Amino acid sequence: MNQKEQLQGHGYFRKKKWAKGLASGIALGAAVITFAGATGISADETTAATDNTTEVVTSQPESINDNNVYAENANTSEGTLAVDIDNSNVEAAATEASNVGVDVTKEAAKDYGTDTTTDGLNDTKSEIANDQEKQVDSLEQATATQNANNTAYADAQAAIDANNDYVNNAKDTYGSETTVTVTNDSSTATDGTASANNEAKTKAEQTLADNKEAVAEYVEAKANYDATVSKAEELNAAVEAAANELKNKGVTVTTSSQVVNSVADVEALQAQNDATIAQANSEKAAVDALLAQYAADLAAFNNGTNVSVSAGVKTQDVDNLTYGNSFMNGTINADGTFTFTHDMNDGLNDTYGTLGTGTLTGKLNYRVESQGNGNITVYLDSVELYTYSYTAYRPNYAVNQNLNFHVYTLGGTEIYSTYHTGNNSFTDTINRSTTLTYEHGVSVGDTLANVGFLNIDDNWIYNTHGQAVISFTNTNKAPDPVNPPEVTANLVTAVNPEKPTLVLTSLSDTTNQTIKASYHDYKLNYSPMVEKDRANSDGVDMDGKTAVKGDVLTDTLDISNLYANLNVGDTVTIIDPLEAGEYYNVDDNIAAAVANGWEVSYDAATETFTYKTTYTGEKLVVPTVDWAPAYDAAYYDNTYKVLVNDNLYQVYSNTVKTPTPEAPQPTKEITDTHGNDIDGSTTFDKNVVFHLNTDYTPYTDVTASTDAISKGFAILDDVEDGMFTVNEYGIVIRLTDDNGETTTLSTDIADVTEAGGVSTNHTGDNDSEETTAVNKLNDLFTMYHVLAGETISDEVQAILDQSGLSPVGEFYLWVAKDPASFYTNYVKAGKNVTIDLPAYLTADAGTVVPNDFYQIDFGNAYQSNLVTVQVPDVSPEKHAISTDGTNTVLDNQTVGLGEVINYLLDGIEIPEHHDTLWQYDLTDIMDTVHDRYTGNYHSEIIGTKYVASEDLTLAYDVMTDYTVNADGSISGTVIKAGDVIPEGTEYAFYFTFNQDTNEEFVNSIVKVTWDEEAGVWKLVVDSDFLQSLGIVGTFDVNTWLEAERIASGDVHNILINTINGVDYQTEVVTDTPEPEVPETPETPVEDVPVVQSSVLPLTGDETTPLNIMASLIGVLMFVFGILGVRKRKED
C-alpha cells in the first residue's frame, strides 16, 4: 500500500448502523455488541477511511434529560397508599363474645406505620394476620371461658342453693326441738372462674351429703334422747328464751353447758339460771335508769333556761354627819316583779330616826331562751310600774318641805313623779309601762351583771340619784358523765351425754366471673420503594462495578413492590431517562416490554423510555433496558421514576452506577539494533525493531462478562506495504510475571493461505531451546500473517468485524488462544505484553516510514501512537581540488601530468537525530597507474548539537556557546577533557589530524591505513567511540588526500562512505592528455614515502631529509588546497 493510503487507513473503522448514532469510527467500533456474521472477502477489497469521516467524539456527552435530577431524588417518595385490612373475622369473634356475656371493648386502631417494600408489607400483613389470629383466639378464648364460667356458675350455684335449702329446711324442722348449729363455709364464694365453681359445686354436693348424714344421725339419736331428757329440753328452751330476752335488752349473754343426769340437776340449773337472769335484769334496769336520767339531765342542760336574777339600785348614797346616811335598794323576783325602796332623812335622823321610806313596785318583763348548748340569751322587753308608796315615820321638821320622787327611762323620759312633804304616808297607783329592747347572751356559769332599766331620783335637801339594775346568772349545770358497767349473764344449759347434736353447714353464694376482652382495627400505609438492578450477561450485579466498553448490561426496573398494594384499575407509569453515551436498540427494548403487556413510548430528543399499564390483577414482567457503554472513561448512572394513579403516589428508584475504565494507551516504539529509540529519526542501519506495548492497566478493576471476554484479545499491526519486511523468526513477546521478571517468548506463526486455512507455523519441528520457547508461547497467542492480495479467513475477518477494523494490504494479527485465561492472567492483572517486531527497511531513500498498531480488547480497538523513521537519501561527495592556491574544482577537467592535486573525501553528515552509529568508514580507491599518493592527508571530525543529559566528563575537549565558522571549523568556550560538562549543556567537538599527528586520543578513535598494492586508502572511526555519541547530534568526517598525476588518460577516483553497514559510493573523473612534445628522458623522481597499513602517525619507514622536505612542500600545498576547497564546499 502506498504511504497516503497507509496514513489514511490508520484508525479506520467500518461504519455500522446503530440505534444511537455516534460521531465517528472509533466510537462506532466501541459500540459493537456482537460479532457480525463474517464471510470471506479479499484483503485488497477493503478500503481506507475516506476524508469525509466525521470528527471523533472521545468523551461521554452530557445528559440531556432528567437523569441527573432523578438521581438527586433517588430513594425518595411523595404521598402514601392506604392499605385496606379486612378485620371482619375479629369483629365476628367480638360479637360472639359479647353475646355470651363477655365485656368487650373496642380500642383505637393499631397503627403499623408505613412500609416501603413488598417483603416489608407482606411481613406487616403477616404480623397483622398473626395479630388478628391472636385477637380472634383471645376473643374465642374469652367466649369459651365465659361459657365455661356460665355453666360452672349455674351448676355450682344450684348445688349451693340445694345445700342451703336443705339446711334451712332442717333448721326449720329441728330447730324447735334442739339447737341447730349452722356454720357458713365461705369457700364457695369463688372468684367466679369455672375451675373454682367446679370445685364449689363438688364442695356443695359433699356438704349437702354431710348435712343429710348429720340430720339422719340426729333423728336417730333424738328418738332415744327425748324419753329421758324432756326436762333438760325444757331447761334449755328456757335458757334459750331467757338468753334471747336478755340479749334483746342489751345484756351480754354467754352460755355454758353442764351435763345433767337427773331432773333435780335440771331444776338446780334452772334455779341457778333464774338467779342469773334476775341479777342481770336488775343490773340492766339500774343501768337503764342511770342512762335515762343522764339523758334527761343532759337534755335539760342543753335546753335549760335556768337563771338567777337579782335587782338593785345603783345610787349616789349620802353619807353626812349632819343628815345621816341615805340609801336606795331593790329586790326582784323570778317572775320579774320588783320592789325598790329608798329612805328620806335629814340631820335629825340620828335623833328622830328616818323621816320615811318610799317603795316603788313594778315588773320587769324579761325572757330567757336556751341556745341549745346550755348557754342562754336574756331579753328585756318592757317595764311596768305598779305603785309608789311612801311611809312617813315622823314629821318633817325641816324647813324644806319639798320632797319629790321621779322615775325615768334610761333615755331620760319621765315615767312617774310625785311631790310631797314627807309628813304623810300615801300610795300612788301608777300602772304605766315602757318598752325595752335589750338582749344579751350568757354562757354557762357566767353572770350578766347590773343591767340598768330605770333611773330613780329622790330629791330633798340632798338628792339621791339611783338606777334600777338587774343581774342574770346562768345557773344551767351540765350533768356528770356516766359509765355504767357492762351487764353480763352466763346461762347454763343442760346437756345429756347422749343427746344428739345437729351441726349443719351452709355455703356462701358463688359469683360468675365476667371476662373482659378488647379488640382493635388496623391502620397501615404503604410507600413502596422501587429498585433498579444492573447486571451483565452473566447475571453479575454491576452496580458500583466497572464495566468494559461494549459489554451488554441489563437494567431491570423492578417495581414488584408496587403490586403488594395495587388495586384493579390503578395506573402505573414508569419514566426512565437514560444516561448519555449509551448504546441501546430502541426497537428491541420496546418490543420486549410490549410483549410483556406494557404500553411503551420513547422520546428520542430526551432519550427517555416511558412505560404505562393499568393493573388488571395480574403482575406484568418488569421492564428491562439492554444497553452497552459506548465510551471509555465514562460514568453511567441511572434512576427512574414511578407514578401510581398519576400523581397520587410518586417514587424514585435507587441510582445504579457503573463507570468504564480509562481508554488504554498502547504505545508503539521503534528502536535500532542497539535498543535506542529512533522514533522520528533517520536510520542508516535498515535493521530496526518495532515494539508493540499493550496497556492493560485500566482493566484491573473491571468486571467483564463471559460474553465480553469471549470477544477476545488481539494485537494488530498493519504493516506498511513495501516499506519494510518483518523477520518473523525474530519476533518475540515479552511478558511480565508477578515478580516483575520479564519472560521473552517467540510466537506461533500462521500464514493464511489462499484457501483460508492456516499452515504449519514457521518455527520448525526440532526440540531446540528456541522451539521450546515457541511452544510456551503457542499456548498464549496465535499469530496470523495476512499478505496483501490474499484471502482473509472467516476467523480473522470475524475478529476484524468485531473490532471495526479494516486493515489494507499486509498485516499481522496476534490472537489470544484462551481469552478467559488471558483475561485473568494478563488483562485483569494489568500485566502488559510487548511484541518485539524486528524489521528490515525496504523503503526508498528519503522515505519516511510510519507505523502504529491496534490493541483489541473485548472487541474494542485502541490505536497506538504513530512512530516514524526515515530512510536517508544521502551520498558522500568526491572532488579533485587544485593545489595552486585557487582551490579550483577539477572534476571532469584536465589535470596536468606531474600536477599535484587534492582529492576531497566529503563524508556524509549524520543528521541530528539518527540511529546508533557503530560504523563510519571513508574508503578511497585510487588509480595508482595514474596517481601517486604522496602520503599527505588532512582530516577533520565535526560533531554538533550534543546535549549533556547529566553532568558528565569526556576524554576530549568540547566547546559550548560555539559557532560554526565559514571554513567549517568550530570556535567557542572550551571545556577541557576531564572537566565536568553540566547537565543540559549543548556542546560540539572538532578534531583535526594529519599524517604527522601523534595524539593519543586521536589515535584511539581513528585508524588510517594505506594499501599501496591495492591503491586503497581507508579511514575507520572507532565503533565504541561512535556508539558513545548516542543518537542525538550531528557527525561528519572529511579528508583531503594529496596525489601527483603520473600518467595521462582518464582517471577515476572512487569514494566509498560506509555507515552502519551500508556503502554509499561516489567518484570523481579527471583527464590528463598525452604530452605533445617528443619524449625526453625524465629526471628520476624519488618516491615520496607513504604510510602503509599503519595507524597515524607514520611509523615503520625511514625518514630521510628528502622525505622531510617533500612532506613540508606537500603539507603547504595541501593546506592551501584545503582552504580553497572548504570555501567552495561552504559555498
TrEMBL record:
**Entries under Pfam families matching the protein:** Adhesin_P1_N, AgI_II_C2, BspA_v
Where along the sequence do coiled-coil regions lie? 122-149, 197-249
Superkingdom assignment = Bacteria
Give the record's keywords alphabetically.
Cell wall, Coiled coil, Membrane, Peptidoglycan-anchor, Secreted, Signal, Transmembrane, Transmembrane helix
Q: Where are the transmembrane segments?
A: 21-43, 1106-1125
Q: Which PROSITE patterns match?
A: GRAM_POS_ANCHORING
Report the residue ranges that make up the Gram-positive cocci surface proteins LPxTG domain in this protein.
Answer: 1096-1131
Write down the InterPro entries for this protein, in alphabetical order: Adh_isopep-form_adh_dom (IPR026345), AgI/II_N (IPR041324), BspA_v (IPR041237), LPXTG_anchor (IPR019931)
Fetch the NCBIfam families from UniProt.
Answer: isopep_sspB_C2, LPXTG_anchor
Protein's name according to its UniProt entry: Gram-positive cocci surface proteins LPxTG domain-containing protein
